[in-house]
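Appendix B. Chain record.
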Amino acid sequence: MKIASIETFSAKEVSFVRVRTDDGHEGYGQLSAWNANISALALHQQIAPIALGSDPLAIEELVERCFLKEYKFPGAFTTRAIGGLDTALWDLKGKAEGKSVCQLLGQYRTSIDAYGSSMRRDITPQDEAERMKRLQAEHGFRAFKIRVGKVFGNDVDQWPGRTEELIPTIRQALDGQTTLFADGNSAFTPKRAIEVGRLLEQHRYSHFEEPCPFPELEWTAEVAQALDIPVSGGEQDTDLSQWQRMIRMRAVDIVQPNVSYVGGISRALRVARMANEAAMLCTPHNANKTMTLVFTLHLLGALRNAGPYMEYTLEHDPWAEGLFEDADLEVRDGSVAIPEGPGWGVKIRQDWLDKADYAISRLD
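Structure tokens predicted for this chain:
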């Protein structure tokens, strides 16, 4: 069995990947959302020439070879392109063996508890509190995450005083049993991050994500060492050497690889294993309801050092709607069921594929 073709079906924000073999097997994956059409070009131009003709079932070996061959291009678009290939191959392998990806990985649970993740900084603390109370009543969320500071804000808040008002407002609005998290999105210097962290501790929040600019591991480590609240991070990181450094120096307490950013299931698993060897939790990042949500569900269903919750966006991105046929990815009683069936257990809508920009790379 050899990889005979790699196809992409692309819009600007979403691009699906189909891999077919010379004996008729196929699998679907997805490139990371946002500028996915650029990742599709990287896939065809850089990764497809390496992958075509390879054994589709030797996934980790092929993924590593792609990285070694493209060592001069270690950045995000290379890892996203490889992630598209990797996730299509896991689907293909599952379908070939009649198993879900989660079963291939060693499934031990059938659903994942989800925390409602706000992506908004343009919302007032009062409106955010009301929204979370309503969604908790509707979907049974037992945990939520808020956004503090301003993205790469260098200690500048979204508007003056918002962070100091938001943290207690959300805690007061939700019952004491609700778990709360906060995300800085690289907002703060260490001094300010520690101040915000102390306020989070005072109001019984459970982790503080990416408090400092993510490339500044020493800053993040300083914050993690100063606070009692666990610090999490790693969403943006794609280099396994950086992951090793992050874990070795305990820059964070919880690692958060994104399957689609880091290069697929194979590399996300490597990060999780590094964390497990260091007795650290792994809570993969997920910020949309595309196939990245599906990938994360399958991974967490088999991950023994997983954190207690999966990230589940509260927002409705129009480009992420209507992608799948009859897929139930909704939160019910605070959890999401892992799709059943071979591979990923979801089917992409044919009408979406038909309208997408199409490209193919074939084995000569």
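Further analysis of this model is presented in Appendix C.
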